[in-house]
Amino acid sequence: MNAYLFPIKQAIITFPFLALALTVPFLIVQYRKYGYVNKLRSTILYSLLLYAITAYYLVILPLPKLLDNCEAYGSFWSYMQWQPFTFVSDIGRETSFAWNSFSSYTQLLKERSFLQVLFNMVLTIPLGIYLRYYFRCSFRATLFLSLGVSLFFELTQVTGLYGIYTCPYRLFDVDDLMLNTTGGIIGFLIAPIVYTFLPRSEKLDEKVNLSELRVGFIRRSIAFAIDLFVMTIVTAIMSLLLSGATLLTYQLTSGTLDASASRLLSAGLAMLLYFVLIPAVCGGRTLGKWITRIHIVEDVRQSDARHVTWRGLLKRYGLLYFVYGLLDVMNMIAQFGEITMQASIGILFLQFLLILGIFVHVIISMVKGDKLLFYERLSGTRNVVTEGEREARTEAEHKMEASVIGRQEEESDQPSVITSALLAQRKDVEVVHSSVGEASQSPRSKLTEQSEQQSEPAVEAVPYEHEEQQPSHETGRKTYTLGEMVPELDELPRSNITSEEVEREVERLRAKVALLEKREKEGKD
């Protein structure tokens, strides 16, 4: 048992460091793909990382003490086992198991040969669960992926950790391939148990509206770090162009007043280019904002397709980099100005107070949940999540569907003259019913005796089949009759209608039937 506990302990120790190293790439991928970070998805994926580390360590640990291990472990071919089901004979040879003895079953759980078989299957059961639940793989895909992962494990062992060791230090066993693949299939079969306490992976983003999400400070910090790196490169290029110097002479004169002034001017021009002109043309995006899938908008221009103007960007970054420029000017005065020691200390103290004030302002904004900083409030700009074409199309469809449903509900509360005309003229009712009832294929209904007596003499009665049954439309478990869908049919007077009006009424009834089907389906889900 200690042979299995040691790799698990090492995996638990390694996991925090590897998870921390992958945090920024993970966040960027989540921002780019989904537009935000889902906590449940993050938990699932980080648990997958922990499982992957644990499984890999169980395969390779413990490592040999020497790289040249051929004398201790034998030749390459001595670590190949190609006979299937050898584990059955190993269990029979190393244990006293008997089918008709209950005590031998409990003893079996302590035997090395049986535990090795059991752990080989358990090793890949989580893999099958992840493949079916999160990645939504089919049975065939899970089968081949489990076999592929098992083959990867065996090749890792038989190649001596990809050639790091001279000879293999573990056995390449065809039984391990079979048992690992079986474990993946078992995981696939028991994966539906996860659905009882976790939502389906395809529904994790179902109730998320990207247009309503606030851009957090972590996301902004990643974008700022990327932009600051690019800004440094652009500033250096601007300084070289303005000074007309080579890289060597620029390095030699970097400590002079002229070089500091040139660098400050270059930083201002680089800010205008990178943070004002480029975002004004690219819809409020810099490279960092594009990578993290955010952009800048002006509050007064939310409905404008351009999102933000160069004036808004100039106000925003002018306020932000005014603070940066002020700190740089203070440095120049303290370094090159002919001032007393007390004045230099005063300048350093002012710099400290300014930096401390910004830090406190950011902390207070984070604690209060206010995502806007001082330069955003003063400039009337803010960061928003960039919606992809798919999200924008889905949101537009939802809005259109909501407006159609609202219009249909308003129409259903008011009597329809066309509907009463359809009741008066049975031939036209027959047209409507044949159009709507193609999906339901339900029998026709007869008119009530009261409507028969009130019908106009000019309208010839048309006999209906199945007099006892009303027309109906089945949607799942419940059956909706024509009277339930259009209750005003039996109450309103008749009138003459045109074919265009009939077509419009047919479309309205079709939409109503589709709405009933959708509501019934949502009720089931």
From TrEMBL:
Record-linked InterPro entries: RDD (IPR010432), Teicoplanin_resist-assoc (IPR053150), VanZ-like (IPR006976)
Protein origin, superkingdom: Bacteria
Domain named VanZ-like: residues: 49-194
Biased composition (Basic and acidic residues): 389-401, 463-477
Localization in the cell: Membrane
Polar residues biased stretches: 437-456
Record key words, sorted: Membrane, Transmembrane, Transmembrane helix
Name of this chain's protein: VanZ family protein
Lineage: Bacteria, Bacillati, Bacillota, Bacilli, Bacillales
